[in-house]
Structures are given as C-alpha cells and as structure tokens.
Amino acid sequence: MRVSVVGLGKVGLTLATSLADGGQEVVGVDVSAGLVDAISSGTIHTDELGVMERLKRTHAKNFRATTDMDDAILNSDVTFVIVPSPSNQLGGFSNSFILKACESIGAALRKKTTPHGISIVSTMLPGSSDYSVIPALEEASGRKVGETLHYCYNPAFIALGEVVKGFETPDYVLIGEATPACGDLILEALQPMLRNAPPLARMTPIEAEITKVASNTHETMRVAFANMLLTICGEVPGANVDRITGALTHRMGRRFFKGAVPYGGPCWPRDNLALAVFMDAIGSPSTVPRTVHASNDHHGKYVLEKVMALAPRGRTVGIIGLSYKPGTPVIEESYAVKLARALNADGRKVLAWDPLVTADNTPELTSVLTFNATAEETLAGADLTVVVNMMPELASIDWSAAAKSTVLDCWRCLNETQQLAMGRYLALGANPPGDLHAFIGERIGRKFDLMTS
C-alpha cells in the first residue's frame, strides 16, 4: 500500500520509517524545508532508538520526504496526520496545525478521483473529529466521509525513547472509525508495521478520543497512588514502599506502579488537565483528573522538603538525571529540572549530570545549575546527591566518588555494593526499623486513641 505521513517530527519520522521498514511505500511530508532536506540528504539525526537504522534501510528505497502536499497525497492511498496539537491557554489541545494540514490534504484530494483514507494520530480533545476535523476535510476536499473519503482517529500509545516499540509492538491498536470500511483501510496500512499480534479496539472516533486521554489519566493515577504510599512509608519507621506496592501488584498490576518522583513529560500532565477541562465543559465532575494533578504537585513539594532538610542553604546538591525520564533528552515538565530551580532559588548550589541532557542542548539551564561531564564529578562535588532517574547508566558509575557525602535514591534502585561505596545511603520511601510506639505517640498522640477507640 502507498502511505503518506504528514508531519516528520520525532514521532512522525518514527512512524514513517517504521511503516516503510514494514514494507509499505511511504512518502513523508513536512512544512520545514530544512527538515526535509536533512532527511533526503541523510544528515538527519534522532536519538530515538531504532529510527536511524530503519531510515538507513528504507531511505531512497521505499521512503522519501517532500514539502509538496500534492505529491504526497496524489502518490498515496492512506495518510497519517501526526502534527503538533499543543496545549492552549484554557488547558485543551489546539487543533490549529491539524486543521491546517486537513485543508492542504483536502485541496490535494480535489486533484485525484480515487478513494483516500485519512488517519489522525495526533492527540485531540474529545469531540474534535466530529465537530472540527471531519467537516474541515469534507469542505476542503469536496468529498463525504464514508464514500470516497475514509476517516479514522488512530492515536498511538508511545513513550519518548521507545517510540519504535510503541508503534511496532503496541499493547493494542485503537481505531476510532467513521465506518467499518474506514477502519479496515487504516488497519491494512498498519498491519505490515506490526511485529506482534496486538488486540484491536475498534469504536467510534469520539470513543477513541476519550480512550486516548483517559489512558493517560489512569496511568498518572497509578503513579500518584504509588507516590502516596511512598510518602506514608517515608514517615513510618520500618515501612518500605516497594514491599507494599509489590504486594498490591498481585491484584493491581505492575505497570507505572513504583513510588518515586512526580511524573512529568510532554504528555501525562497536559492530557490529564485536558480531560479535566473537557469534563468541566460538558458538566461532568472532573474531580479525579484534577485531584491526580494536584497530588502530583504536592508530591513534588514533599520530595523537595526532604532534599532541603538533608542539604540546608549554602550546601551543594547533585542531581543524577535531568530529563523527564531515562532515554530521552526532553526536559519538558521534568521534575529534576523543577527540583534544580527550587534548590537554586533557595540558596543551594546545584550540580547535575545526565547522559543526554547537556549544556549544549539545554543552555537555558546553565543559570540554574552546573553541568558536569561525568556522574563522578557530580558525586564528588556535592554534599547530597539525588538520584532522580532510574537509568541503565547507574550501573557503570563509580559510587565511591560519594565516599564523603550522602546519596538519596528516589527509586531505591542502587544495589548493596553501590550503597557501601558511598558515605551515607538513603532510600526515599524505605525507612529503617524504629520505635513505632514512640513514633505514634510523638506524631499522633492522644488522637490515635480517639481514632482507634
């Protein structure tokens, strides 16, 4: 099948190369001539695992890039639209880039007579397909959805750093189809890319739009719940959050269920708030997504207080891991960056090391913290070092560089050998045994008797 992909950013390029690597004839289109030139000349680079290998295998064979929308549409049967849908001032998602792409696609469709399928991959606010996108496509193309124009909302469930995995071996494929024939066409385009046999969830576009944002709300809810348990275990003597969440996983599953630092990144926070503003608009109580979001903010303050107590003003704090998660240089809504800014503003010097986040790609952080070339430099120069990200590179760090200082492990991921190499090891959410009777008497006192009478 001939496929076009509109939008060749980090995620769009991954989708295009994965489709081509699966055997489809793919043409990618983007408004950025510089980006298209870089792809065409082979000078493009991305840190996304597996993309460069797929690009090398398919470049000039069955994948090419262009800035010409007419070229892309006239030489394809199905189009995947994966352009930005940024948050707006009201907390929703702006459809402006999607609608602009639809206008260009529709204009190109007027120049061909054969049927064409459109799949929107970008995240949208529920109701966008029926209220905005389909009318825009029909008006621009002069066609009707369900006749010679096929439409689906087909969002991907991906994570930066492993986008290829999300596209090629998804947990399931979500198809919001205007008609069953529309869904069949999109699935035919996707099938060669899939390396597993994922379940299919076929429904209406509005149901798929709700499913997409609800998925992220559920995942953030799990993170917030695990972090709530961490704060309890962080105060009660002899309580370890991993033993508690480990027991709960027998009924609740392990996915996104480990107490640590607050969640961040470009998707979870904004999707959670977007669901809340949509629920407010339709008169549905938005208590759950708003409470999860507030809980995440409160948890960040809890961790900050712990760090500040361990490193008073005038001390130096090291941070291991600056990105919002391992495997990506993205710092959008990164808790590590928020922590660094707060510590810097409150009179502490901040050192930091991250294998992918450097002064070169994030110069805006140089006023807040000092970048170190190695983790050992951060450990040696800090009074307290906070392990914010649980990354594979932790295994190769020489932790004896912290022989005279303290390390706070937010993920409780360092092994005994690593712990013994440092001056003092503290595990967030895992308190050593203590006098529980005295703890309750001091913290709760007479109220405990009243609560248990």
Account of the 3D structure:
The protein has 453 residues and is α/β, with parallel strands linked by helices. 44% of the residues lie in helices and 13% in strands. The chain contains 17 helices and 14 strands. The radius of gyration is 25 Å and the shape is globular. The mean pLDDT is 96.
In CATH terms, what is the architecture of the largest domain? Answer: 3-Layer(aba) Sandwich
Q: In CATH terms, what is the fold-level topology of the largest domain?
A: Rossmann fold
- Count of DSSP H/I helices: 17
Query: What is the global morphology?
Result: globular
**CATH H level, superfamily name of the largest domain:** NAD(P)-binding Rossmann-like Domain
What percent of residues adopt helix (DSSP H or I)? 40-55%
Weakly predicted, low-confidence segments? none
CATH class of the largest domain: Alpha Beta
**Count of separate structural domains:** 2
How many beta-strand segments?
14
Task: Let me know the average pLDDT.
Answer: 96
Largest sheet: 8 strands, mixed
Strand content: 5-15%
How far apart are the first and last residues' alpha carbons, in Å? 71 Å
Instruction: From the alpha carbons, calculate the radius of gyration and give it in angstroms.
Output: 25 Å
Could you give a short description of this structure?
The protein has 453 residues and is α/β, with parallel strands linked by helices.
